[in-house]
Each structure stands twice: as C-alpha cells, then as structure tokens.
Design brief:
The structure is a homotetramer. The first copy, chain A, folds into 2 domains: 202 residues, Rossmann fold, CATH 3.40.50; 67 residues, no CATH class. By secondary structure, chain A is of the alpha/beta class. In chain A, a hairpin with a 4-residue loop joins β1 and β2. Chain A is built from 14 helices and 9 strands. In chain A, strands 1, 2, 3, 4, 5, 6, 7, 8 and 9 form a 9-stranded mixed beta sheet that branches. Chain A starts with 15 loop residues before the first helix and ends with a helix. At the A-D interface, α10, α12, β9 and α13 of A face α10, α12, β9 and α13 of D. β9 of chain B pairs antiparallel with β9 of chain C, so a sheet runs across the interface.
C-alpha cells in the first residue's frame, strides 16, 4: 500500500534486503547476529533468503522475525515473455517453500492489497485478477478429476479512503467466514533504490505489519490477527520523493558507494564520470551523520510527502509484473495438478 | 448481476414495472389485487411506486412483497449535466423514503454488485467509486462539525467467477464485522425492453432474491440473511438476447401493442409504417400463447444464452448513469448536512 | 467500425463466408459463377479462401472482387495461450499470401480502425497497441543487424464522431506523408451469426468499401483512394439487434437449417429439442420470403437500430483477440527476422 | 510529452514563469530586458502574462519570443466542481486572447499530444476526448442554426514509440489535408516545482519547440512548420527525478529561498522548522555554483533519467485537469454560441 516505514536511517524501505544492505554497507561486515543469509543464482534471478531468528536480529534489521525470500531480477523490466516465464518459475519455487506448510488441498485466500485507482499501487488487485480462482469449482469437481486441485479464493478489499473500512477488518471478516488455511497478501511496496523498482519480488512469512509511529491506523495482517499463516508477496513500484533525495545526496557525495554493493552481475553498470569529485562533495559531512539525515527528511516531507518517484513506463510495467507474480502463484498453489489440465478444466 | 429470472411469460425482467405492465397488458385492467400503485411526474422523471402488500399480489407479480419505486427518465441517455442533476435529485427524493426508517447518523454499507470486467455489469462498482465514503472520518470528526454526517462504508465484492466466494458470503461477513444499520445494494439489471436500458432506476426494499429455478446458487441478500434492512437500487443495462427475440416477434405481429403502453410523453414515438401488416404476421398465432413463448425461449437459449443486447454507446452511458445514481445516494445518505460543507470537509 | 451493410436478404454481414453461405444455403449448389473457393483445415482453424474473379460473382456475393481468406476458429474464445499461439501462426500464414506482393523491407502502415471508447469496436486500436512498431528504428539500425527488419508504422485514427475528420481523410493524409508500400486496416466487424463472434478472422485485399445506401459518408479505404495495396483484417464482435431477430425467426421456424451448414466439426453441436415444431412454426410463411424479411427489418430498426448483441464476456475476449491478431501480424510483417532477435532488439 | 529541456541552470522546465522565477530569483530584479510581465488575480487564479519581445529576452529566458499566459490555481487539486468551473472560465478568458486572431467560424484543429499509456502523459488525449467536436456537423448544419458554430476537429497522434511516426509528421500531414486556420496543441509538461504539478496551466503562441541538444528528433510544431498559428496549452504533471534532487539540495541549503517567491497567497505556507540549519548546510557551497549543478545532474541522470516524480493521486488528478482544460477550450472555441444550445444540438 505504498506507505513504507522510516527507519533510523531516515529511509523508507519495505525490503529486508535493503535493510540488510544498509546495515552491512554502513556498519560493515561481519554479518548481523540472529540473521541468517543464503543466496542462490538462477538463470534470471539472484535470490536472497534472509531468516531473522532472534529478537536482536529483528531489532537491528527493523523487521519482524521470520523468513524473507527476495528475487532480484533485472530482466523483469525487459518485456520478454520467455524471461517472464522463467521468473514466474523461480517465484513459484520460492513460494512453495512458504506454502509447503499446509496440505495440497488446503484452501487459500489471496488478497490483492492496494488502490486500483493509483497505477503503481494497483499491483495487488491486478495480480488477483490474473489468478486461477477455484474455490467455487472445488465442490462441483468429482474427486477423481480434482486430484490436487486447491480451493483458491481472492479478494481485493480496496483501501481505507475508498471503502471507509480498514483493509484488515475486511480480511478478518472474510477469514472468519470462509476459513482458509493460509492467507497470501500481494502488495506494491516502496523501495529506496531506483534499481529495485519493478525488478524485485519479496516473499515473507511475517504478514504485513505497519511500522510503529508512521501515523496510520492500519491493523496488522498476520497470523496473530487472522489465526492462520499469512504470507506477504511484494514488489517495489515507487520510491518516496523524500527518500530519493536523501539517497541522491549520498550518491553525489560518493558515487562508488552510495547504493550499496551490487547484488547481481546483470545489474546495469554504474557510469564512470570524468569529473573532479571535490567540486561536488566539498564540505558535505561524512556518511553516517544520522541527525542530518533525519533533518533532511523532515524538511522535505512537507513539500514532497505526497509525491512518488516511479518509472515513466509504470503503466505497462505493472501489467507485466502482475502477470509474472500471478504466474508464480498459480503454479505454486496448484502444484500437484498438471497445469494444462487445470487450464482446460477452467475453460470447459 | 445481469442474471434475470424467466417468468411464466418466458420473459426475463428484474423490474416490477415491467412485470406489472406485462400482466396488465395481457390480462387487462382492473388492477392487480394486493398491488397498490401510485404515479408521480416530475420535470424529468415519471415515477411509479408499487407496493405489493399480499402474498397473492406477490404471486401474480412474481416479485417479493415490498415497496418498489421506479423512475423512468428518458433524459438519462442525453448526456446533459443539468438534466442529470435533476435526475439525481428525484432519485434522492425516492431514496429518502426508504432510508427514512433509520436514524440520520445510523451507519450504512453500500454494496456495488457486479463484474467490473464486463462493461454493462460494472454499474455497481462504478457507483460505489463515486460515493462520499465517510465511515473512517466519522470518529475523527468533532461532534460539532459532524452534525448529521452519516458513516457510509462501501464494498465491491466482485462476482463468484472472480473471487470464488459467493457475493452473499462476502457481504454477510462484512455486515457481521461492521454492523451497519442498513445495506444498500447497487446493481445492473436485465430488462425486457430496449426503451428502458439506461433510462430506468428501480429502488426496492426487498433486497436481492435470486429467482428459484434459475440454476444459480446465489444467496439471497435481504433482511432475513443480513439482519438489517436491505435496499436494492438497480438500473437495466442489458436485455438477454433470447428475450429481445421473443419481444421482437410480438412487435412484428402487432407494432401498436407489443411493448406495452408508453409511460411518459417524452418517450420516442413509435414510427409509423406504411406496410401491409398481413404480409408480416400472417399465420402467427394470437398473443398469449404461453407454450409457444416458452418453446421459443428454449430453442434460442443454447444459441444466445451467453449473448447480451446493449446500446452501442454503453461504455459512455454506464459512466453517466453511475454518476447520476451516486449523486442521488450521496444526497440521500448525507441529507442533514450542507452538501458544500461535506465536500469541503472531504477535500480538506 | 461496426456498420455493416444490409444485403438484399435483409441481413447485415461484413463476412464473405457468410454472404456465400447465405446464397448457397438459400439458392443451393452448384457453386456461384466467378467465385472460386478453397478450404483448408489446420489443427485449430478451418480456413476458407474465396476469390471473387468476375463482376458477376461480385454482384451475386454483394462483395467487391478480390481475395478473401477466412479463419474459423472456435478455440479463439477458449482463453488457452497455447491455442492462441497456433491461431496466430495460422493467421500469419494466411497474411503472408497477401503481403508477399511487396518486398520484405517495404514499409507498411497498419491502421487500427474503430472507436476505443466502445469495447466491441476497440479491436483495431487494441491490435495496433500490441504491434512491433519499427519504422522509427529502421534508420538507426545498422544494415547488418537490420537483415529483413521491415519498417512498420501504425495509427489509430478514431472515428468521425470523436475527431470530426473522416477516417479515410486521416489515412490518406498519412499515406501521402510517409508513403508506405501497403496499408493494413484492422477492424471489428458485424456478423449475422452468434457462432462467429470472436471466432472468425477475415483477411481481404479489397480494402474497406462502405456499402452503398447505408447512409454513411465514409470514404472508401482501398488501393484506388490510397494508391497502394490495402489489406483489411477483420473479426466480427457484434451482431446488430435487428439482424439477430431476423435470424432467430428463421431458427425458430427450422432449427435444423437456419444458420446454414456448420463449417467445422469443432463448432458446438446444435441442441436437440423434444418438441413439436408445429406448435411454434405453424403458419409462418416459407423461407425465402424476401419482402417479409425486409419489412421485419424496417419495423425493428427504429427500436433496435442502436442496439448491439455481443458476448457477455466481450471485454475479456477483445483483449484475447487483439493479442492473437497482433501476434499474426507481427510474425507476418517481420517474417525474415528471427523473432527472438527482434524482441531482444526492441527492448535493448 | 514530458521531455523538458535542460537549461543552463541544470533544470528542466517547460514553464515560462519558472524560467523567469529562476532568473529573477538568482540574479535579482530589476526585470529582464525584452520581457514584459503583467499579473492579474481572479477569484481562483493568479494569472501571469509574459511577453518576450526581443531576441535578448528570449536568450535570457531560454524560451522562444512570444506570448505566454500562465494560470496558477492551487484549487485545481481540490476536486470541487464549482471551483473547477471557475478555472475553466478563467482559462477560456485567457485562451480567447490567443484565438481572437482568427475568425469565429475559422476551423481549428486541437491536437492531444502525449502517450495515452502513461498516466501523467495522457493529459492531451484525455482533453481531446472531452472536446465538442463539430467539424463533421458544420456542413450538415443550416446556416441559421450554425450562427457562430466553429468547426473543430481533433487528433491524438500518439508518441513516436507507439506509432513509429514523428508526431510532427502526423500533424503536418493532417494540416495539409484539412487546412485549419489554427492548431492548438494540448500537452503534459515537466515542471521543476512540486507546488506547480496539476495546479498550473500555460498557454503560449510559440507552438512546441524541442530544446536543442536534448537529443530527441522531434520536429517543431509551430507556425513555421505548419503554416498556421500554433497555440500550446500545457499543464505540468511530473518533475524529472534528477531535477527534484537538485532543487531539494537547494531547499535543504536554504529553505526560505529555494523554490523562489510564492506567487499566490493561497499557496500552502512553508512549514517552519525548529532546527539548527547549520547542522544541515554546513559546507555546502553557496548558491549559483553553476558547474556543480551540472555535475550533479550528470551524475544522477544515469540512475534517474527514466524516473518521474508525480503526485500519488495522479490518476484522479489527470481526469480532473482534463475536464477543466476541455471546459476552457470548449467555451473559448465556441464563444459566439449559446452553450446550452450547442450541447442540445450535439445530442439531438
């Protein structure tokens, strides 16, 4: 829902990989205690699995304890159907690790969070619109055909300003009514880095937990409030304007370092500049000046609080990303079925 | 939701005025026992208030007992903003009669029924998108400003094929959660007459009651299932293809009579033909041959069951009608407030 | 542009196969003089190639002399990506026969006819939106990479009511400016048969020739007016309401015969009715009563002239059909290029 | 078309008022030679009329010689229909000064520039979609009814990437074909200030003149290339990400000064900060360091060149702004007609 949380670094990020990058980048290795990290590289994706196992780790990361899988996929913006299918497969593989906890025929509710009237926030509703919805077919299907068909239901609850109802209230009411074994929330996220917009997918088993102090009344959407596991699937589609300025200042100060270490070879190479860096950075105090960052943020907020930074071609990108994420969900949710057969069945 | 019910006349109509017209037209006056009728004419609307007071009346009308107000407004298709505001005012006046039963500050849930992916069925979601949603503002509003502000929430639950969840289930779950004093459902209807498409608004206090034998599993959405009054607001946007053929046959047989008596002077005059009617109608059995009608319907159904008849310019008309209906609802729901102030407040 | 032409049979059709069916159906074999017909069956399509070689044939068919290829593909409505790709390939194969007359690097202008504000009429603009547009890249491409890249430009001129300019005027102006070697017009058509809606693609080398007497002022869009070959690609998306009624009357009269012979085994079987046909058809004069048909049409026109019949799910179907047609055009237009390479190049 | 031009101040702006503000702000009064300025305040708008009368003035302003009227209207974002109508009236008043040069019945072509697939760039096509198009009705209208009806035609040519044809080519071809007496281009602009997004309308008689050195091949769209007067109407809807960072740096350095003098009392007051500015700005070199600005821009461009800054609610704002601009154009173009009559006529 594009809200983001302001961390102690004065930075709004919904991504665990960014949180970690910031910390390691600023405070340096060794690794963070209570935070296990594993990375895998596929043909198209660079996958980072972060497991926050202790309260200490959670405190340092400013993230809830739990598992986070992040796919960084520069090819997501490429508009190549072949690449997109590979990303969907990688996503399905990661999702399976989260869905494996419930039975193959256990019912799932997929929630498309976000505002369908705001293009970069419409990811959730668009993903949900591309899903294979089967809950209503399940009962009508003879068991011998059913073989592994999972009952999947969906809802796009809208946002508070559109409905007058907290998103969490709507979801909780539905969960009570239809009793799914798992809820999967799909949402657009805010990132702090241009390079991650529409190129990164995060899966987390922590649900959605509004940052304290952000001033919004959003109810948490997690196992505690819903009574069943809640998986959050998110893709950053915007940067808050105030964030990009903070980062840009760092970038200007030290182009070689500012955005943290590149995570995949495919990422666009940073441009070389033949300029005298002294000309630019003279006098800017060294990195890590926490107070200064917060002040910058507070100055910019009144001017830019309502502004988002997004790719020019976001309308087209959102549609592509929605198809990729829906493809991964469809494959992961209906894993034991031959996909062709499912499709045929649905159309029959 | 564009389903319609096949009456004993082999005709699909969701409109009480059409049901009555058919009966009176075919069986003639005097009036139907247990059915009270009152008509009013305003500058732009012809209003018919039908009250079905007995089970006998309900059986004859094939409609639930209850109150039905119908506005027939040829000007609704005219794309004239001035006329549209007058229609909204007439609608607000009729709606008030239905809403008057609850207190001015009693919370209301407005439900936009229908499929947002099918233009003529998207009326409900579009109306809801134009409403003044206030439930979330109510608590934040100081009582002295609040003065009559009604908490209004909305939901567009989608259709079974999109969500896998019965619409009635979603609404019931939400009603349990947020406990409104009244539910208002807005829906696109099927009519049996070209002249009523996008020119008629029906309000009924009977809720939405799927016809028996139509083969769909829709739960009723009414006071019995939800535990609070349920008002249904509907506008016909399509005719089923099989219906239009039945009617067309009658029209060909007897142009002067087929569509029932015109209800408002503004309706387009029927064209005069200088032809020998014998050439067309020779041998077609007289009106009222019930078996024949049903057979015609059953022959056409397999070919045309999935086809709808709708105005060419339906995409534009739906937007106009949605604004008109939303205007009427906004005025009726927030009656005790100065409208300007409400608008100012919302934007503040 | 969903206008259609009223033939002497009182029927609006834009399809040569329908014109022929009507004639053969009513007047019986042998074949029509001056009209050559060839049929081919592929895995998914039934292809009919009609060549009207004489003025006599043109007069009987009420179509311009020229080549017409028609793909009848029941699977087009199935929403199966695999089937859709096969249809695109069949379409590309047929299109190649029409495009073969110009050189592989000869520039082509593709025109998306129709009204983007009316869902069933938006096919042309939607197809054009899915095309690989290359004209602007051609000059920037080194010849060794270019290898067979064809410069393709597109325009969606809108309709007269939206622009105040005849579509033909806009196209002619552009043709003078950019001098393509061929113009391909993509358009939504009116059919006379429910079974053909969104299941049929027609290609013709006759361009677009408004019927005489239809009362619209549309300029012809053909080789004569534009000075280069004009290919028309069309898909029926609506039936005019008055047409469906005429046909339905015939269907009621003789269900076994009314819609003409089925053309492909995959077409949905006609339902068997266990009824006494006499009950329905008694007294309706025998088929072929030309005057009666015209009279029916003239009676219905004032009531239904503005009404269209279209599948309930037209919003979704239009998107599918647009992708299929665009896929066929992309493959046919850039034939000598390795498709993968084109895609890579475009995204680079 | 959201391209913008990089001025010597390293700033992308399409607005004459911003160019002037920058200059006066940095170099101080007295006024710029060859640049006449007049300001007017209405109930809702602050209007600035800039007339660049000499080549010197043009060089300093980095704008073509000509007349520029700018309406600054904070209320444009308020979603209040009453205010919106007043803005339309102010706009019509300004437009009339530009249109007065041609006869009341002289034909006008309105061009909706921009990309309908990119929300903030879709302003032009959306405005054009709300215009009263009359060119095709003109001939059919009896002279006594016509009384002042102006023939208005429209086109939305799309962008180069969508059509493969330079926008300027399409317009020039059409101008040759239909010979309008004036062309009015409506376009989304890039601004350098958050406060101007969707609150400012600029009218200029200079047409559209792509900046030199920007690297795009756009043809100029002006009197010289088209042979008739060309009026440009633009509304800023985005800021380039690299621009906002430059400005933000200045803002951080000196909050009291950075965005130039406020132009209307209604503009939101700048927030007061209780902080020690020294903490933030220590060491940043003084304003006006031209080389540094350019360097900042060149560093950020590779990261942010494709990023835009836009209000969160841009999807809704664009629709509002399109209606306001179309309202102003409709009133200005058909000035001698009674508006009600025009509307009635169009619907008849």
């Amino acid at each position: 829902m594009l809200t983001g949380a302001v961390s102690k670094y004065g930075v709004q990020t919904d991504l665990a990989v960014e949180a970690r990058e910031l910390i390691v980048h600023r405070e340096g290795p060794p690794e963070i205690p209570g935070v296990e990290v594993e990375t895998v590289k596929t043909e198209v994706s660079f996958i980072t699995r972060i497991n926050i196992t202790t309260e200490d780790g959670a405190r340092i990361m400013e993230k809830m304890p739990g598992r986070y899988s992040t796919l960084e996929v520069p090819g997501m913006r490429e508009r190549n159907r072949d690449v997109q299918e590979k990303i969907s497969q990688d996503l399905a593989g990661e999702l399976e690790k989260f869905i494996a906890d419930i039975a193959p025929e256990a019912p799932v509710l997929v929630v498309g969070l976000g505002n369908w009237n705001a293009t970069p926030d419409a990811l959730g509703p668009k993903v949900v619109g591309n899903l294979m919805v089967t809950r209503h077919l399940y009962e009508m299907t003879p068991p011998e055909v059913r073989g592994g068909l999972r009952p999947v239901a969906t809802i796009s609850p809208g946002v508070l300003g559109l409905t007058g109802i907290e998103t969490g209230e709507i979801i909780r009411a539905l969960v009570v009514q239809i009793e799914p074994s798992m809820v999967i929330c799909v949402d657009a996220l805010a990132s702090r880095s241009v390079k991650r917009l529409c190129t990164t997918i995060q899966i987390a088993d922590t649900g959605i937990n509004p940052g304290s102090g952000v001033g919004n009344r959003r109810l948490a959407i997690n196992q505690e409030t819903l009574g069943c596991p809640v998986i959050a699937v998110g893709v950053p589609t915007v940067i808050h304007a105030a964030t990009i300025v903070s980062d840009a200042m760092e970038l200007v100060q030290d182009p070689s370092k500012a955005q943290g270490p590149a995570t995949a070879d495919e990422l666009p190479q940073k441009t070389q500049f033949n300029i005298d860096p002294q000309l630019i950075t003279k006098g800017i105090p060294p990195d890590g000046d926490q107070d200064r960052r917060e002040l910058i943020h507070s100055i910019l907020e009144p001017y830019m609080g309502n502004m988002i930074v997004t790719p020019k071609e976001i309308d087209v990108l959102i549609d592509d990303v929605a198809e990729i994420v829906a493809g991964g969900l469809n494959a992961a949710l209906h894993r034991s079925l031959d996909l062709e057969r499912v499709f045929d069945y649905l159309q029959g």
